[in-house]
Automatic annotation (TrEMBL):
<protein>
    <recommendedName>
        <fullName>Exportin-5 C-terminal domain-containing protein</fullName>
    </recommendedName>
</protein>
<dbReference type="InterPro" id="IPR045065">
    <property type="entry name" value="XPO1/5"/>
</dbReference>
<dbReference type="GO" id="GO:0005049">
    <property type="term" value="F:nuclear export signal receptor activity"/>
</dbReference>
<feature type="domain" description="Exportin-5 C-terminal">
    <location>
        <begin position="337"/>
        <end position="1178"/>
    </location>
</feature>
<dbReference type="GO" id="GO:0006405">
    <property type="term" value="P:RNA export from nucleus"/>
</dbReference>
<dbReference type="GO" id="GO:0005634">
    <property type="term" value="C:nucleus"/>
</dbReference>
<dbReference type="GO" id="GO:0005737">
    <property type="term" value="C:cytoplasm"/>
</dbReference>
<feature type="region of interest" description="Disordered">
    <location>
        <begin position="1202"/>
        <end position="1224"/>
    </location>
</feature>
<dbReference type="InterPro" id="IPR045478">
    <property type="entry name" value="Exportin-5_C"/>
</dbReference>
<dbReference type="InterPro" id="IPR016024">
    <property type="entry name" value="ARM-type_fold"/>
</dbReference>
<dbReference type="GO" id="GO:0042565">
    <property type="term" value="C:RNA nuclear export complex"/>
</dbReference>
<dbReference type="Pfam" id="PF19273">
    <property type="entry name" value="Exportin-5"/>
</dbReference>
<dbReference type="InterPro" id="IPR011989">
    <property type="entry name" value="ARM-like"/>
</dbReference>
<dbReference type="GO" id="GO:0006611">
    <property type="term" value="P:protein export from nucleus"/>
</dbReference>
<dbReference type="GO" id="GO:0003723">
    <property type="term" value="F:RNA binding"/>
</dbReference>
Length: 1224
C-alpha cells in the first residue's frame, strides 16, 4: 500500500453532523419542490463528500441504518463503492480490511424485504472487494458465502448474485480489475465452483488446493440441489420460480468455463432439463438459455461428449423438446412475446446441439435416436416465423454438406419434405407489403426493426434454401428434378388462379403471379446448380438432360403478357443453356433467338409497366451477351444470320444509341471470343466496331471543349444553366418541386439529356466491359483485348481524364463564375444526389421513385437532369478506368499516366459530396490493389498520396461538420436528413478504412508478430516481405506519411467498425518501426505522440466505450514496443493529470511481466487511465430492463449481419476541452 495511513475511520470526529448534512442534501435532490439552485448546491456537496477521507465511514453509517429510506441507504453504499474502486490502494492495509469488513457486515444484514437495488449493490461491492483481495489476503470468502447460503432465500439470492457477477467479470467481461489478477482469480473461481473430487481427478499431477474453498461439494452442486428444491411441485410459488431463475442464470454464467466433468458429477444437466417441465415460461426460458450456453462450447472430450451431448439425441429428450416447442408456437396476429421468445430459444439450442452432431459424428452413440432428432428439426423448420426456423434451416445445410450424414438413408428419406419447405420459402418476402396478412411477414415485423437488417436476414434465409435444394439435387438428381419440374408445371398452368387477369393499367411489379413464378424459378435455378455439380464428365445422363431440354422448350413455347414473367423465363432459359445443357449449342441458339424476340409493346398509360418493359430489355441484352460469351464458336458459324437478326431487332426496337451499341456488343463478343477466326480478320472486324468510337475520342472539337470549364458545360448542354438558374431565382426558391419548368427550362432540360447521348463514354464502357470483364489474365481473349485497347490508350486516356476532372470541378462553386456569392449555395443543392436509403428515408422505395417521376417537369426535375448528367460522366469515367486496369501491365506501366491520373481524380475531389467521394474510393480501391509489383514505384506514389491527402481532408471536414451540427441541434431539425448524412459519412469512412486494410492487412502471415495478442519481440522492417503492397507502403516515406496520418485521425472518427479496424492495422504496424533506421525513428516518434494521444482521447470519449479493449491493446503495443528505444510514450502518459512518475514506473514494470497476456496488458492500461476513460452506462448503474422484443442472440445477429451500421441520432459529445489540456 502507498501513502500515509490516512484518517482513523473508527474515530470520525463529526460522524453525526456529516451524516445529517448528507441526508439533508439527498432530501433536497429527491424533493420535486426543490429549486435548481438548491439542488445544484446539494449535488456539489455530495460530490465533495464522496472524495472526503471519511466518506466510507459515513457511507457505512448511512447504509447500515435501517431507519433511513432505501434510496438514502443506496447512496451510502455508493460512498463505499467509490472508496473501493478509486482509493483501495491509498493508505494503510488496515483501511482495505475495514472496507471488506463493512461489506461483509452489510451482506449479513440483507433481509428479504430489502429492495432489489440494495441487495444488488451489496453484491456488487462484495465482487469489487473480491477482485482486489480474494485469494490474496482474503482467504475465507467461500466460507462466508457458505454461511450466508444457509440463511433465508434473500441471502441465497445475494450469494447467487455474487457468484454470477464474479464468474462473468473473471471469465466473460473485459473487466480490467479482474484482468489484473486473471490467472489467480480464474483458478480460485474454478476451485470453489467445482466438486473437490473432480478437481483431484482432472489435475492429478497438480496441487489443486488454493486454500480458498470451503467444503467438498462446490457451488455447482449446491446450486443444483437448490434448483431441485425450487422445481418441486412444479415451482408452485413465486419465490420458488424467482429462485429457480436466479440459480439458472448463475449456472449459465459458469457453464461457459466449468469443467464438463463437474456438470456430470453435480447432475447439472438432469436438474436443468427438469426445469423444462415447469409450467412457467420464465423458468423454461432460463433453462434453455443455460443449455444454449453449454452447447455453444467446443472441444468436449469423448467421455464428456457421451455424458452431456449424446443424451440430447435420445427419444425422450427430442420428444420432450418437440412437445415444448409445439406448445410454444404462437398466433402471429396475437403474439405472446414470452412464449414466442421461448420458441426461438429452443430453435437456437437445438441448432447448438446439432452442430456437435455435424462436427463429431464419430462420437455419436448407437443408442442415439437421430431419426427423432431430424423430425424435431423438420418441425422447427416448418414454423411460420422465419426467425424461429432459420437455425434449423442453417443446420440442414451443415448436415447435408457432411460426408457422414449427407448421403445417409435417414436424411435421404427426408428429401421430399425439405424440398417442399424450401420451395415455399423461396418467396421474395421483401416484395410483400408490410401490412400483408402473410404470417411470416407478421412475425418478421415483430423481429426486425430496420430495413437493412430485414434485407440481410431474408438474403441469408434464401441462401440457405438455395443450398439445401442444390445439395439434395446433387445427391438425388432424377427424383428431385422431376418433382420440382412437376411443381413448376402446376404453377405455370394455374398462374392466375384466384387472381385477376393481366391488365396493363393495374400493373404491379409485385403481383402474386410474378412472385409465384419468381419463387418457383428460383428453386429450379438452385436445382440446376446442384445438377451441374453432379453432372461431371463420367456421369453424363442423356435421358435426364434430354427431358430437361424438352421441359425448357415447352417453357419457351408459353406466352405471357407480363414483362417480368417474360424476364424470368429468359433468365431461366439462359441458366439451362449455360448450365446442364451447355453441350448443345443448337439449343443455346434457340434460347438466343427467343431472348432476342422476347419483347412487349410499350404503353404510356402505365409508368410501372413502362419501367418493367425497360427492365426486360436491359435483361434481354445482358442475357444475349452471356450466351455470346459462352457459345462464340457456334455463333460464328452462323454469324451472318445472327448479325442480320441482331441488326434488324436493334433497328426496330432500340430507342437510343446506347441500346443500339449494346446490340452491337453482342456481335463484337462473338468475333472477339470465337477461336475459328483468322487473327487478321478478327482485328479488322473489331477495329470496324471501335474505329468510329476512337475517332470521337481524338476529335479536335472534343479536345477543345474539354480544355476549359465553359467548353465542358457547352458539351453537356449546360452552357446556359447558370444564367437560367439566376434569372429564375432558384437560390431564393425553397421548394423547387413546386415550380413547373417554363419553355426555356424544358428546352434546357432536353438539351442536357440529348447531349449526353452524343458523347463516346457509354459506348466505350460497353465495348470495354464485353472485351475484358471475367477474362483470365493471360488467356487468348485477354491478350487480344490488351492488344486491341493498348493501341487506343493514347486516343482515349487524355480526354477521359479531362472528362473526369471537369465533372468533379463542376461541384466546386468557384467555377460557377456567373453566380453572385449569395447564390453559390445552389451548386451543392443541385448536385446533391437524391436517393432512397433503407432504414432512413421515409416512405417506401416505390414512393420515392414515384415522387421523383412527379417532379420531372419542375425546377427539381431540371436539377435532377443536371446532376444525372454529371454523375453519368463521372461514374462512367471511373468505370472505364477500372476496365483499363484489368488489362494489367499495359495500363499500369503506361508512360506519363500516374500524375495526370492523380490530378484528374483528386484535385477537385473534396468538392464532391460524401456519397460521391465514397463512390470514388470504391472505384480506386481495386485499381490500387491490383497494381502489379513491377509497376508499384511508377504508378502508386502519386495515386496514394493524392487519395489519402484528400480523404483525410474530406472526412475530417465532414466529421467536424456533423459534430458541430449535433451540438447545435434543436427540436426543429430534420432528423432523417441528419441521420442520412451521418450514415453516408460512415460509409465513406468505412470504405476508406477497408482500402487501408487492403494495403496494410494485419492478417497476412508476413505481418503477424510472434505474439498475436500481446507484443513480444518486435519485427524489424527490413525483414518484411518486399513483394507485398504493405512493405512497399511502409518503405516509401512519401506514401506512408498521408496513410498513417489518415489512420491516426480515423481513431477519432465516430464509426465503431472503422475505428476497430484501424486499431488492428496500427497494432500490426507498431513492431515494424521498432528498429534503428531513420525512417523507423521518425515514424516511431509520430506513433508515440500523435497516435498515442488519439488513442487516449478516444478512450476518454464515452462514444468509444465499446472499443476501449481495442484502444487499450494498441496503447499497450506502443508502450511495450517503443519504450525500450524512446522515452516519448512515457512522457505523453506523464503529461496526463493524476499520472505520476511512481505510477508510470509501477505500470511499466507490470507491463514487462505480462508480455504474453493481452488481457492483462489491457487491464493495466485501463487501470492506469481509469480516471480518464469514458464510462459505460452499465458502470453508471443505469441499465434499463430489456424489452423482450429487443432480446436478440448472437446467432440471430449473425443472420441479420449487414454492411450498413445501424444508424441513430448522434448524441452530442461531452466537452473535451479537458482532454486537450491533458497533454500540456
Amino acid at each position: 500500500m502507498n501513502g500515509s495511513s490516512g484518517p482513523d475511520w473508527q474515530n470520525n470526529p463529526e460522524p453525526a453532523e456529516t451524516s445529517s448534512k448528507i441526508l439533508q442534501a439527498l432530501e433536497i435532490i429527491h424533493n420535486p419542490t426543490s429549486t435548481n439552485s438548491l439542488r445544484q448546491k446539494a449535488t456539489h456537496f455530495l460530490e465533495e463528500v464522496r472524495s472526503d477521507d471519511y466518506a466510507p465511514f459515513n457511507g457505512f453509517a448511512i447504509s447500515s441504518n435501517r431507519s433511513h429510506p432505501a434510496i438514502i441507504r443506496h447512496y451510502g453504499l455508493s460512498l463505499i463503492e467509490y472508496a473501493i474502486r478509486h482509493r483501495w490502494d491509498v493508505g494503510a492495509p488496515e483501511k482495505s480490511i475495514q472496507l471488506r469488513k463493512w461489506v461483509v457486515d452489510l451482506a449479513q444484514d440483507v433481509l428479504g424485504g430489502d429492495p432489489l437495488y440494495i441487495s444488488n449493490k451489496v453484491a456488487e461491492l462484495w465482487v469489487e472487494v473480491a477482485k482486489r483481495s480474494w485469494a490474496l489476503d482474503w482467504m475465507d470468502m467461500d466460507e462466508l458465502l457458505f454461511h450466508l447460503w444457509e440463511g433465508h432465500l434473500a441471502r441465497k439470492a445475494l450469494v447467487l448474485n455474487i457468484l454470477e457477477t464474479l464468474s462473468e467479470d473473471i471469465f466473460e467481461r473485459e473487466d480490467f480489475t479482474a484482468g489484473l489478477r486473471g490467472p489467480e482469480l480464474n483458478r480460485a473461481c474454478i476451485d470453489i465452483f467445482t466438486p473437490a473430487a473432480i478437481l483431484r481427478e482432472s489435475f492429478v499431477s497438480r496441487d489443486t488446493n488454493m486454500n480458498v474453498r470451503y467444503g467438498e461439494d462446490g457451488w455447482l452442486w449446491r446450486m443444483g440441489a437448490l434448483l431441485e428444491w425450487c422445481v418441486q411441485e412444479n415451482a408452485a410459488t413465486e419465490p420458488q420460480r424467482a429462485c429457480a431463475i436466479k440459480v439458472l442464470h448463475t449456472m449459465k454464467s459458469a457453464f461457459n468455463w466449468i469443467l464438463p466433468g463437474a456438470l456430470v458429477k453435480a447432475h447439472s444437466m438432469t436438474r436443468v432439463l427438469s426445469c423444462l417441465g415447469v409450467s412457467a415460461v420464465s423458468v423454461q426460458l432460463a433453462a434453455i438459455d443455460a443449455l444454449l450456453t453449454l452447447y455453444n462450447r467446443t472441444r468436449f472430450l469423448p467421455d464428456d461428449f457421451a455424458e452431456l451431448i449424446c443424451p440430447m439425441y435420445s427419444h425422450e429428450s427430442t420428444g420432450a423438446l418437440k412437445q415444448l416447442f409445439e406448445w410454444s408456437l404462437v398466433d402471429p396476429s396475437d403474439i405472446d412475446e414470452e412464449k414466442y421468445l421461448l420458441s426461438k430459444k429452443i430453435s437456437e439450442m437445438v441448432f447448438a446441439v446439432g452442430r456437435h452432431l455435424e462436427e463429431r459424428p464419430d462420437l455419436i452413440a448407437e443408442k442415439c435416436d437421430l431419426s427423432k432428432y431430424f423430425d424435431l428439426l423438420i418441425t422447427i423448420m416448418k414454423a411460420q416465423s422465419l426467425h424461429t426456423s432459420i437455425p434449423a434451416l442453417h443446420l440442414w445445410v451443415k448436415l447435408l454438406s457432411s460426408q457422414h450424414y449427407g448421403r445417409s438413408k435417414t436424411v435421404t428419406s427426408l428429401a421430399g419434405q425439405l424440398l417442399e419447405i424450401c420451395s415455399h420459402r423461396m418467396l421474395r418476402y421483401e416484395s410483400l407489403p408490410e401490412d400483408s396478412p402473410n404470417p411470416s411477414i407478421l412475425f418478421l415485423n415483430e423481429d426486425v426493426d430496420t430495413i437493412p437488417e430485414r434485407h440481410a436476414f431474408l438474403g441469408n434465409y434464401s441462401r440457405f434454401c438455395h443450398q439445401i435444394v442444390e445439395m439434395i439435387v446433387e445427391r438425388q438428381p432424377a427424383d428431385a428434378l422431376y418433382h420440382l419440374l412437376g411443381q413448376a408445371d402446376q404453377v405455370l398452368d394455374h398462374l392466375y388462379d384466384g387472381e385477376p387477369p393481366f391488365q396493363v393499367l393495374a400493373y404491379s411489379k409485385t403481383s402474386v403471379p410474378v412472385l409465384r413464378i419468381d419463387a418457383q424459378f428460383s428453386v429450379i435455378e438452385a436445382a440446376l446448380k446442384g445438377y451441374g455439380r453432379w453432372l461431371t464428365a463420367d456421369r453424363a445422363q442423356e435421358t435426364l438432360s434430354s427431358n430437361l431440354q424438352v421441359w425448357c422448350e415447352r417453357l419457351l413455347g408459353l406466352t405471357f403478357e407480363d414483362p417480368l414473367v417474360l424476364q424470368r423465363i429468359v433468365q431461366l432459359a439462359v441458366v439451362f443453356a449455360t448450365g446442364p445443357l451447355k453441350g448443345d449449342a443448337r439449343f443455346a441458339f434457340k434460347v438466343f433467338d427467343y431472348s432476342l424476340n422476347a419483347r412487349r409493346p410499350d404503353n404510356n398509360n402505365s409508368a410501372t409497366y413502362t419501367e418493367a418493359i425497360k427492365e426486360l430489355e436491359s435483361l434481354r441484352l445482358h442475357q444475349l451477351q452471356r450466351l455470346a460469351m459462352r457459345f462464340p464458336d457456334y455463333f460464328i458459324t452462323i454469324f451472318d444470320a445472327v448479325e442480320q437478326k441482331v441488326n434488324e431487332i436493334a433497328l426496330a426496337t432500340a430507342a437510343d444509341d446506347h441500346t443500339r451499341i449494346r446490340y452491337s456488343s453482342v456481335l463484337f463478343i462473338i468475333i472477339h471470343r470465337a477461336t475459328a477466326v483468322d487473327q487478321e480478320q478478327r482485328e479488322e472486324k473489331l477495329d470496324y466496331f471501335l474505329n468510329p468510337l476512337i475517332a470521337q475520342w481524338h476529335a479536335p472539337s472534343l479536345t477543345d471543349s474539354l480544355s476549359s470549364f465553359n467548353g465542358f458545360c457547352g458539351l453537356l448542354g449546360l452552357g446556359t444553366l447558370q444564367q437560367y438558374a439566376l434569372s429564375r431565382g432558384m437560390h431564393q426558391t425553397p421548394d423547387w418541386s413546386a415550380h413547373p419548368l417554363d419553355e426555356e427550362g424544358r428546352v434546357l432540360q432536353s438539351r442536357i439529356q440529348n447531349s449526353l447521348e452524343c458523347l463516346p463514354l457509354r459506348a466505350t464502357k460497353t465495348f470495354l466491359s464485353v472485351s475484358i470483364e471475367r477474362l483470365e489474365p493471360g488467356s487468348r481473349p485477354h491478350s487480344m483485348a490488351c492488344s486491341l485497347w493498348h493501341k487506343n490508350f493514347t486516343s482515349v486516356l487524355p480526354n477521359l481524364l479531362h472528362f473526369i476532372s471537369q465533372a468533379q470541378a463542376f461541384h466546386d462553386p468557384t467555377y460557377w463564375v456567373t453566380l453572385p456569392p449569395e447564390a453559390t449555395g445552389i451548386v451543392r443543392r443541385i448536385l446533391t444526389d437524391r436517393f432512397w436509403q433503407v432504414g432512413i428515408s421515409s416512405g417506401t422505395r416505390d414512393d420515392f421513385y414515384a415522387q421523383v417521376g412527379d417532379t420531372k417537369s419542375t425546377l427539381e426535375g431540371l436539377a435532377s437532369s443536371v446532376r444525372g448528367s454529371i454523375r453519368t460522366v463521372r461514374e462512367i469515367g471511373y468505370r472505364i478506368l477500372h476496365y483499363f486496369s484489368l488489362l494489367g501491365e499495359p495500363f499500369y506501366c503506361f508512360e506519363g499516366l500516374p500524375e495526370p491520373l492523380a490530378r484528374a481524380l483528386f484535385i477537385n475531389a473534396c468538392a464532391l459530396s460524401t456519397h460521391q467521394m465514397a463512390v470514388l474510393v470504391d472505384t480506386i480501391r481495386p485499381i490500387i490493389e491490383n497494381c502489379p509489383t513491377v509497376a508499384r514505384s511508377h504508378f502508386l506514389p502519386p495515386i496514394l498520396i493524392g487519395l489519402f491527402e484528400q480523404l483525410d481532408r474530406k472526412t475530417g471536414e465532414e466529421w467536424d461538420r456533423i459534430e458541430a451540427k449535433s451540438k447545435a441541434a434543436s427540436a426543429d431539425d430534420n432528423l432523417s436528413e441528419e441521420m442520412r448524412d451521418e450514415s453516408i459519412l460512415r460509409q465513406l469512412t468505412y470504405s476508406s478504412v477497408i482500402l487501408i486494410v487492403g494495403l496494410l492487412d494485419p492478417d497476412k502471415p508476413v505481418n503477424v508478430a510472434p505474439n498475436t495478442e500481446g507484443i513480444g519481440a518486435s519485427k524489424a522492417l527490413n525483414n518484411a516481405d518486399t513483394g507485398t503492397t504493405r512493405s512497399y507502403v511502409l518503405t516509401t516515406p512519401a506514401v506512408l506519411k498521408p496513410v498513417i496520418l489518415f489512420c491516426t485521425h480515423a481513431l477519432r472518427m465516430r464509426d465503431t467498425r472503422s475505428c476497430n479496424l484501424i486499431t488492428r492495422v496500427l497494432r500490426s504496424l507498431v513492431p515494424d518501426f521498432a528498429g534503428p533506421s531513420a525512417v523507423a525513428t521518425e515514424v516511431r516518434e509520430f506513433i508515440s505522440t500523435e497516435v498515442l494521444k488519439a488513442c487516449i482521447t478516444s478512450l476518454h470519449d464515452p462514444y468509444f466505450v465499446d472499443l476501449q479493449k481495442d484502444l487499450a491493446q494498441l496503447i499497450a503495443s506502443i508502450v511495450l514496443a517503443y519504450i525500450p528505444r524512446t522515452d516519448t510514450p512515457k512522457q505523453v502518459l506523464l503529461s496526463l493529470p493524476s499520472i505520476t512518475g511512481e505510477k508510470i514506473g509501477r505500470f511499466l514494470n507490470q507491463m514487462h511481466r505480462v508480455q504474453d497476456s493481452g488481457r492483462q496488458q489491457r487491464a493495466l492500461v485501463l487501470s492506469l487511465l481509469d480516471g480518464l476513460r469514458g464510462t459505460h452506462i452499465s458502470e453508471q448503474g443505469r441499465i434499463p430492463k430489456p424489452d423482450l422484443k429487443s432480446v436478440r442472440s448472437a446467432l440471430h445477429d449473425k443472420y441479420m449481419n449487414s454492411n450498413m451500421e445501424a444508424d441513430r441520432k448522434q448524441q452530442p459529445s461531452p466537452e473535451l476541452e479537458g482532454v486537450a489540456d491533458m497533454f500540456n
